[in-house]
């Protein structure tokens, strides 16, 4: 299977995912072996929404492969402000760069943009849609900590707007994973995502819950996301649910000793700092994994014009 | 007896919707959907098409049905297929010289392009981009090929007019 672009985790088979994760592991073990692999390669960064981490992680990845980046800069100073369409912007930057990374506030932006360019395009988040490169580093982290087969994972927090969650849930259907989704009713997974999960699910299945309690003891991985205060119509509604979805050492007393706790970061108060020093905490490793995983993705997409199965 | 497909029982509604010489008769459209049928086909009479429309006429199969007759234009199978989204029971007769020369049933297409607009205001297709709205047709609805929003009811209200 050949991919010219990485738009959604739905396009990836288990074999594709394993190719990327294996390549990332090789790179992680010996980064110097690829230090010049993409010398003279330029990656175009098009961030229509601010994101320091994802952007820096791509920038680091490209530079560690020997290449460099061109950046359209902040939205305020770009021609976007003057009303240029995304379709025009990507066609212009395509002339400068060998591959493009796009983050955009609108859903479907990456799909549309990919129709206008020939260079590989990587979706770094399209509104509440997808964030497949985050998913690859999440999967890498899960594989290192708990393995991807016979996995019981709890995914908790704002599941409605959490694009990282949507992408991860799709990708996990390729594996023998039981997925438990834990959220307030108002922040449940979008029905579109549930529809897809049921379509593609031939494994142990997915379940939705409102409290962590009932599933915590069975989990190998707990993936926590931030519940954004601004998603709630009023503060009291937020206060009602917020406590349910914050974890501390006391919460984890009911968990398995080898529970892995993940978070795409930034966190606010979902995970108490006291958990950071325990063996449960994997979120900083998870963030670190962004670089080797994005190096692997760039390497595979830039090789021979984009073929994830070498 | 009518042979243009417009007559269910050859009854009195023939008077309301006249026979056509050559063109297309879209029959058994769910009552009240005739204007949506024209919209989905992009027919608004602006190109001089001669149209006859019967709305809410009595029907054996559907209690009330609409009939649309387009003089001088034979619909293609592709055009007919998009009708399945809003008028799945409709039948299409192609008429030449007052004779029905082809009968089609509508078939669900795999996708419809440029016909519906996405109800998700955050969808890239609802901005000023040069992109044609595209929906995949599901068993029980349609789904935006860009933002993936699924629409199951009220599809007719998404028709891009
Ligand atoms: Zn859409």
UniProtKB/TrEMBL annotation, chain A:
It is an enzyme of class 2 (transferase). The keyword rRNA-binding does not apply. Keywords: Pyrimidine biosynthesis, Transferase. L-aspartate binds at residues 82, 163, 226. Pathway: Pyrimidine metabolism; UMP biosynthesis via de novo pathway; (S)-dihydroorotate from bicarbonate: step 2/3. Transmembrane segments: none annotated. One of its GO terms (biological process) is amino acid metabolic process. InterPro entries: Asp/Orn_carbamoyltranf_P-bd (IPR006132), Asp/Orn_carbamoylTrfase (IPR006130), Asp/Orn_carbamoylTrfase_sf (IPR036901), Asp_carbamoyltransf (IPR002082), Asp_carbamoyltransf_Asp/Orn-bd (IPR006131). The keyword Transferase applies. This is Aspartate carbamoyltransferase. It comes from Natronorubrum daqingense. The gene is pyrB.
From TrEMBL, chain B:
GO terms for molecular function: metal ion binding; transferase activity. Zn(2+) binds at residues 118, 123, 144, 147. Gene3D superfamilies: Aspartate carbamoyltransferase regulatory subunit, C-terminal domain, Aspartate carbamoyltransferase regulatory subunit, N-terminal domain. It comes from the Archaea. One of its GO terms (biological process) is 'de novo' pyrimidine nucleobase biosynthetic process. The keyword Transferase applies. Residues 112-152 form the Aspartate carbamoyltransferase regulatory subunit C-terminal domain. Residues 15-106 form the Aspartate carbamoyltransferase regulatory subunit N-terminal domain. Transmembrane segments: none annotated. Binds 1 zinc ion per subunit. Pfam families: PyrI, PyrI_C. The keyword Membrane does not apply. Its cofactor is Zn(2+). One of its GO terms (cellular component) is aspartate carbamoyltransferase complex. InterPro entries: Asp_carbamoyltransf_reg_N, Asp_carbamoylTrfase_reg, Asp_carbamoyltrfase_reg_C, Asp_carbatrfase_reg_C_sf, Asp_carbatrfase_reg_N_sf. Keywords: Metal-binding, Pyrimidine biosynthesis, Transferase, Zinc. Belongs to the PyrI family. Involved in allosteric regulation of aspartate carbamoyltransferase. HAMAP family: Asp_carb_tr_reg (MF_00002). Contains catalytic and regulatory chains. PANTHER family: ASPARTATE CARBAMOYLTRANSFERASE REGULATORY CHAIN (PTHR35805:SF1). This is Aspartate carbamoyltransferase regulatory chain. It comes from Natronorubrum daqingense.
